[in-house]
Amino acid sequence: MTTYTVTAKDARMRFPRTIPHDFAKQARMKRLDFTSPTEMYAERFHMSEGLLKALNPRLKTLKAGDAISVLQVAHDRPTQPVERMEAVKATGMLVLYGPGDAIIASYPATIGSADTPSPEGEYKVLRIAHDPRYEYDPKKNFQQGRNTRRLMLPPGPNNPVGTVWIALSKPTFGIHGTPAPSQVSKTSSRGCVRLTNWDAVEVAALIKPGVKMRFVEPFGS
């Protein structure tokens, strides 16, 4: 644990009351931001909102200069170059390999589902987008509710792909963040590799376009 001091910028933050579920309504918003200081601090310090509130019952009345108890999240990132990645469906992990095929990092991940499985085989990272917009196209992916036309959803941590999109050479598939970090590795995805926003940011900092990405099937399949 450590102590964090609330900044003036933190105290000035304004939050939308809620993020509507309907994509058409989301598309009309300027940004899909955090909805409360609790959500903002919980994500910043890689905590559940429940733990954060239990440790800091005055979250709703914080002002600049106040101190809160949070997890110590600072750590040394791997320095070796990432040569390839594997999305391992059996363990629900994204594994990064360096020189000599040594594992240099791994992250909990949601990898596809029975209805919308992730692809098989090997691909490459094409590009990395930070704070991306999300293009909803029911003809390419899936239909949400009654939304039958293309929509462009604004960026933000509550965007459907979170704060990072890592595009793969398989069209419409990638590695990305999520608006629901507590559900990573617990629920299904629509074929992509879903990480917490903070892990997606770290992965994006460790890799570059051209890195190989392989989807590993469950044992016995």
Short description:
The protein is built from 5 helices and 13 strands. It has 221 residues and is an alpha+beta fold.
Ordered list of secondary-structure elements with their pairings:
Blueprint: E1 2-5, H1 8-12, H2 23-27, H3 37-44, H4 49-55, E2 67-70, E3 84-88, E4 93-97, E5 103-108, E6 110-111, E7 121-130, E8 134-136, E9 151-153, E10 164-168, E11 174-176, E12 193-194, H5 197-206, E13 212-216
Parallel strand pairs: 3-13, 11-12
Antiparallel strand pairs: 1-2, 3-4, 4-5, 6-12, 7-10, 7-13, 8-9, 10-11
Oligomer: single chain
Count, helices: 5
Task: Pick out the low-confidence regions.
Answer: none
The termini sit apart by: 42 Å
Main sheet? 9 strands, mixed
Shape: globular
Describe this structure in words.
It is a single chain. This protein has 221 residues and is an alpha+beta fold. Helix content is 16%, strand content 26%. The chain has helices spanning 8-12, 23-27, 37-44, 49-55, 197-206; strands spanning 2-5, 67-70, 84-88, 93-97, 103-108, 110-111, 121-130, 134-136, 151-153, 164-168, 174-176, 193-194, 212-216. The strands form three sheets. A nine-stranded mixed sheet has the order 5-4-3-13-7-10-11-12-6, with helices on one face. It has a two-stranded antiparallel sheet with strand order 1-2. The chain has a two-stranded antiparallel sheet with strand order 8-9. The radius of gyration is 18 Å and the shape is globular. The model has no long low-confidence stretch (mean pLDDT 92).
